[in-house]
Amino acid sequence: MTKDDLFFYTEAKKEIEFTYKERVFSITYGTDAAGKDYILFGRLYEGERFSSFKDLYARAKIDNSYFREMLDVIDVR
Length: 77
Hints:
The chain is globular and about 35 Å long. The protein has one domain (about 5-65). It has helices at about 5-10, 55-60, and strands at about 15-20, 25-30, 35-45, 50, 60, 65. It is an alpha+beta fold. It contains 2 helices and 6 strands, in the order αββββαββ. The strands form 2 sheets. A 4-stranded antiparallel β-sheet has the order 1-2-3-4, with helices on one face. The protein has a two-stranded antiparallel ribbon with strand order 5-6.
């Protein structure tokens, strides 16, 4: 997956699942009680909320590595 792919998926709110080191991760979307959209990234059924693609790209991590540095090894289902 490329940065452009990730941007497209988040803008289109496409839910994504992928496996890394035998663990399933996902990117999903929602709206909080105040009506603000968010991106939920992390292990399946867990995760951290991010306010935008820019926030996700800047802060999301898997273990001790930034998610943005791992995009080339991610195989989206």
